[in-house]
Amino acid sequence: LGVLGELRGAMRRGELVLHYQRKECLRTGRVVGAEALVRWRHPERGLLGPGAFVPQVEASSLVGEFTLHVLDLALAEAATWRREGHDVPVAVNLSARLLLDADLPVRVADRLARHGLAPDALVLEVTETVAKSELEVVDRVLRGLHALGVHLSVDDFGTGWSSMTFLSRTALHEVKIDRRFVAGMLGRPTDAAVVRATVELARGSGLVVVAEGIEEPAQRAALLAAGVEVGQGYLLGRPVPAAEFRRSLERAP
Ligand code: G
Ligand code: G
Ligand code: NA
Ligand code: MN
Question: Which residue numbers delimit the EAL domain (predicted)?
């Protein structure tokens, strides 16, 4: 049947689940968000990470249905957090291709309403890897999402082709410094320079900076010193199943 053939049934049977990884304030350690990361509880192959099926999905016509499915799961979970007294926005990864769908803002608004959530309960993480020729459409869709009040985050910042264009043209809320720069910043001056430049750029544009892939206390300290406000990474918290993430919200500041 192949991954794509199986996936429709998998969605219907509830085999796709989301794990959640905290984003926290580097100064206070408070949770300020959570990124939803999809997993497939495959009946024969075990728990599959996104690498085993997301690329195929992204290249197929299933991408829209898949994304709305993931969005629904994430919003249902965010609604639960709210009921339990935690105002934690959930971040969902959006395939770049979906930014070509002019109806995306309407679809997102509909999903938010169904879950009784305000738009700022949702962050959409997008990468910069959108083709140049398509920037106009993408720009319109991003503006539509922004007008709705959803927060837009640029994922893997620094790895795309059009960083400056993208940042200066689009109504964004957050940039996530790609983890390769975090990994390199203590040893490679050029990586440290990318981190500093991103902070500077973000300040000038009123964007929140998130550093991904923080694995060591020394990285966390260096990022704080560089003016990065928010962090994510194994040091602060691994992606964990929904129930475990909820328990961490109960414990955490
Ligand atoms: O979870 P992780 O550890 O293995 O994720 C690997 C990659 O898969 C990351 O680049 C992440 O952004 C992507 N990813 C995770 N969940 C989703 C999802 O729901 N949709 C899309 N499009 N990408 C996802
Ligand atoms: O592309 P995206 O930024 O969405 O990637 C998220 C991916 O990063 C997930 O696969 C997640 O498991 C992974 N990740 C999260 N924290 C860390 C970390 O501290 N180190 C590494 N190597 N990967 C991380
Ligand atoms: Na992401
Ligand atoms: Mn990333």
Answer: 1-253
